[in-house]
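Escalated from tier 1: 4-(N,N-dimethylamino)cinnamoyl-COA holo job.
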Amino acid sequence: MMTYENIIFEKDGGIAVVKFNRPKALNAINTGVIADLNGVLDQVEKDSSIRVMILTGEGDKAFVAGADISYMVNLEPLKLREFSASLHELGFRMEALPIPIIACVNGFALGGGTEIALACDFIYASEDAKFGQPEINLGIIPGFGGTQRLPRRVGKGMAKELCMTGGLISAREAKEIGLVNKVFPADGLWEATQKTAQVIASKGRFSLRAIKHCIDSGYNLDLRQGCAMETDQFGLCKASPDAEEGMSAFLEKRKPEFKGELK
Ligand code: DAK
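Tier 2 regenerated the structure:
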């Protein structure tokens, strides 16, 4: 397994555990983090034994406290634009990954931190996690999807309030607005996330990919086009041995064992 300077990457059965590892800078994102995460995604894409990925932060204080301000402060506008583009490419890559990604938010998830969590499939958070888009306090705007993915998740009004005030919200408030799926006491977050990851890892790879694709791509289509896409993906499931295994297991009153590969 390759090692990275800014990220810890471990495999636990079918689960890839990926930790942002710059705890002294509260795991702020710089070009090194982006390069390392791209390297991890290269590895994960090639390893068919990995069924699900968990993204979290090293240390007990932060998931990611945003883009690295000490890096951004010296960038010319066009370089800053390049930095934003590389982050957007990373977000699209995470969404295109054929396996689910769970954001396990264990502390501050600010600016780019909230945004990278939004590029994951769903978010679990500890009670003391904090979310927000404080870029406006720096005289800039969100540059990694905060004005785009956030309103799609929580609605335009709430997204505007968060981006325009730069205020932080608690994990409970984040759950109330639909940003976070579930909130756990800090010492129970990891176990709960792992448990859900294990449930997902036991499912069929093709079904997981098809669900992710249908929900993400279908969200931007009208209902009829989205349903047409679902119909195709539904039919395609039969191309994977997992469909036969799942239905046979039900009829034979046993637990299914999904082993299908992506075709
Ligand atoms: N960047 C760099 N260093 C950071 C950082 C960050 N975002 N956040 C924290 N640190 C560093 C602190 O500077 C401090 O370093 P030392 O002084 O120890 O060397 C260390 O982490 C511990 O932080 P504090 O001492 O401040 O800890 P506190 O508990 O007092 O406060 C805090 C925690 C999270 C409330 C505070 O650190 C804070 O407000 N941090 C900044 C949060 C923030 O504004 N985040 C948004 C960043 S802007 C774009 C792409 C993406 C984005 C924008 C544009 N394009 C490229 C165009 C996204 C932008 C952002 O994310």
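Residues 25-26, 28, 65-70, 80, 83-84, 87, 108, 110-112, 134-135, 138, 140, 142-144 surround 4-(N,N-dimethylamino)cinnamoyl-COA (CB under 6 Å).
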